[in-house]
Amino acid sequence: PMTLEQLKSFAAVARCGSFTRAAEELHLTQPAVSAQILALERDYDARLLDRIGKRVEITEPGRVVLAAAQDVLRRVDELGEEMRDIEGLQRGRLRLGASLIVGIYLLPEAIGRFKRDYPKLELSLRIEYARRIAERVLAGDVDLGIIGEGAPIADERLVVEPFAPDELVLIVDPGHRWARRKRVAARELAGESFIISEKGSATQEIIVSRLADAGARLDIAMELGNIEAVKRAVEAGLGISIMSRCAIERDVEEGRLAAIRLADVKMGRSLSFVRRRGQRASRAARAFMEFFAARFKSPTAGAGRAPVS
Fold first, then answer.
1. What is the pTM assigned to this prediction?
2. How does DSSP assign the chain, residue by residue?
3. Fewer Cβ atoms within 10 Å of its own Cβ: the N or the C terminal residue of the chain?
């Protein structure tokens, strides 16, 4: 009868395109891997792989078996995770993915505190654009995505759960004529040198789109490679920008930047968890979601509460 070892060997050969590399990955001999594939082919009376010199190519019947093998092996992995959950988070892993603002300014401190509660839990973090994090959740590369929602993610294979508001605010240097104002109208931005972090990001797209709807024309004077570079340029008086208040909280508190609300443009968005629809969230993922969301409900929580003029 078919065995898990046969399925593992077949999936490895299909992935690696080589018996030799698959054997190395599985820490088996090449004859052992070949024997398992041959046994699988005998069971189904079908050629699953074409041997072309040192390479292998998967056949049409092989694709059918591979899809089933991947489902079985994924469920076996999930079973292992579920059994580890029973141990009360005393071991296991949680792979987090985060968009730039969340990953750089909110998660490091939160992960540190979470690790103090669950020191034996293995945590990893990927930081990329929100769209890329959504792709990684779908691919199974991360267990839980946390994003600052810019362009909406409408993929039906994903569950997007907003858990906290995040406001985009205008930032200027402390010597700017607007620094002490409570609000600025969008039309007043005309003629100001505007600095952006990078074209193509979801946050920049939502800023430009909403300002355009309000009739504001931006004079983009500078495009810099990252968020910190934009903040330092604004601090130096080289222009103004709009940014998540999560990213400028400390700068405002320490007097390096001033934050101002836009009077006639809604710049709110949500911080959201992203999960694959139909997949049971592990106990570690559920615990982290509860822990992280609770930080925004506490009146003493610092994250996402930058003072605004």
1. 0.66
2. ---HHHHHHHHHHHHHT-HHHHHHHHT--HHHHHHHHHHHHHHHTS--EEEETTEEEE-HHHHHHHHHHHHHHHHHHHHHHHHHHHTTSSS-EEEEEE-HHIIIIIHHHHHHHHHHHSTTSEEEEEE--HHHHHHHHHHTS-SEEEEE-SS----TTEEEEEEEEEEEEEEE-TTSTTTT-SEE-GGGGTTSEEEES-TT-HHHHHHHHHHHHTT---EEEEE-SSHHHHHHHHHTTS-BEEEEHHHHHHHHHTTS-EEEEESSS--EEEEEEEEETTPPPPHHHHHHHHHHHHHHHSTT--TT-----
3. N
